[in-house]
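User: Can you write out an input/output pair for a complex, sequences first and structure second?

Assistant: Here is one pair. Inputs:
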Amino acid sequence: MKSRITITDIAKEAGVSTALVSFVMSNKAKGSREYRVRPETEKRVLEVAAKYDYQPNSSARALRSGEYRTIGVVLSDISNKFYAEISRQIENWAFHHDYVVLFGSSDENPKKLSNVMKVFKNKGVDGMIIVPCEGSESAISQMAGSGMPVVLLDRDIPGAEFSSVVLNNFKASVIMTETLVGKGFRKIEMISYKTTLSNIKDRESGYLKAMEGAGLTETRIHRPEYCNYREIEQIVLDAKARNVEALIFTTYNMSLMGRKAFISHGLRVPQDCFFACFNNSDAFDLYEPDILYVKQPIEQFAVEAMTLLVKMINEPESAQSCTKIILQPEVVFSSSEVHV
Amino acid sequence: MKSRITITDIAKEAGVSTALVSFVMSNKAKGSREYRVRPETEKRVLEVAAKYDYQPNSSARALRSGEYRTIGVVLSDISNKFYAEISRQIENWAFHHDYVVLFGSSDENPKKLSNVMKVFKNKGVDGMIIVPCEGSESAISQMAGSGMPVVLLDRDIPGAEFSSVVLNNFKASVIMTETLVGKGFRKIEMISYKTTLSNIKDRESGYLKAMEGAGLTETRIHRPEYCNYREIEQIVLDAKARNVEALIFTTYNMSLMGRKAFISHGLRVPQDCFFACFNNSDAFDLYEPDILYVKQPIEQFAVEAMTLLVKMINEPESAQSCTKIILQPEVVFSSSEVHV
DNA sequence: ATGATGTGATTAATCGTTTTAACATTTGTT
DNA sequence: AACAAATGTTAAAACGATTAATCACATCAT
């Protein structure tokens, strides 16, 4: 039973000290004047390491150096398609940058979010990417305050000093509304919900701003109490009765329920009422080429967030100043393409 | 700048040795005769630990004990809805059992799968849950052979001695086919693809078996070369021309393309041709209450796999014998319910 | 009184790295 | 030639836990 081979084995076989092996393996400052290892020694060590497929023990490394090369990601729900896709991109980035990712879901529950963060911190992560939920500000604040690099994703907490990567939801909403106006619709309403989170609030103000800009004073934002199907259905039916020409749904789940209501009651797009939303779904692509939606730059979300986070990790002084990255939205019509 | 507090701090404050603190914290064999700590001492240690919110450093613990309390999960693609939902359940189970989960995607590429497994092993996981892909047998074999507990999920590799948790795909396919026969269809065909993976092969044999059982000799399994939309579309159109009464799609992606083809060419379900598949989609629920599909027991997948894996981790002797868990399928009609 | 047994707690080695400080050796400068 | 600076390399001390071995003491049967 040959057990795992260690740095000592390599050092012995290469005829050098463990320190040298460590220097070579973690080729810190390689190329700089600081890196002082004779090329032939380096070659010898590398050869031995390769021969035994030596990989430094990450626990030992983490224990000694305090670097984990692990990122914690807390989403509201990883089974939500949007977050699942972001997770995929984050994982991909991490894989290519020698990081490893822990995923957790908050269920939109601040207590759960706080617990998951604690578990991650305790487990040892160098930083966290968080999709904040309603009421999670203090927990996140505490975590960031304890020195943990944190980047908010998708949603920002207005007024709070966190680094974040979010879509320009305001602009997206403006473009979307203007597009609808451009198609000749005048009676446009929005279905949203009561929240303090930035992404939704920005979508609301974008709508109002664009309506005002178009000289349309008749605006309306519905904010159902529980956001369940019955409420959404009621709003849709009511809108139809009042001859609303277009409905904008601000969340993925509500837009799914909205589509269901449309279909159940035979509302056709675009003839009866136009349908616009902020996240695409297979369901829409498949059946309705005339839906307007915001194309989320999934990969960019992941890359920007990870890059920013890693920078904060590596340059603690930069971690103090908070950086807000705002991604450009793209508003498109459902492509009718099936992506597989 | 107060740094992380350690076991030594706790020991000092409680006036005991670090060993004692360790005993108390990891209350091994609590209750058994082995656990020899005076209750009042234990209480004192616990109080001090609570006071400082002490959490043992997991790197140090892992380094010394070899236990990571971390599971590696390698799926084909975490952004695939089915796997995203499984991930959610796995994460949930882990959270409640004090484990943490690393997720990775193989992209159905055995080389990538092998790399991700290596990264996970090197990072330190106690065991892995793997969705194998075509050609990954040797890599998984090697990993399992090196002593790493491994449980296959969703797909099994026929003939290989791996523990696994899979659906009874054969039975699902039989039920599905019988249901279609029961609805009066006789000309039923299947759209599958060339593979060695168990789940697909079982679906094929289930279909053939049920058809034979019903005395229907006219069977046909299509196996498109590249499984792209053009091929699927062609098969669907051809089937329509030949008055095929029902089509069974064996994979999620192909069923999406199939639906697309149905819709593009105005085929209605059930009037023109019936549609059956093995994974539900939002898209189907939303628009077609008459689709037949296999309801995958998502939570059971996760719970069974994790339970089995943890058992293998904790009882190395049991890890030798391979356990195959077969989950019961449920075949249902698209519910027309929107789940949010 | 003696040795055996049981109980509660401690000592110190160990896990596999990283990293600081020091040690040689070579090179460069005057 | 003498000393400084640069270049390679190493010894040894961490990092923060776990755990085998040991110890000190009390209890108890003989």
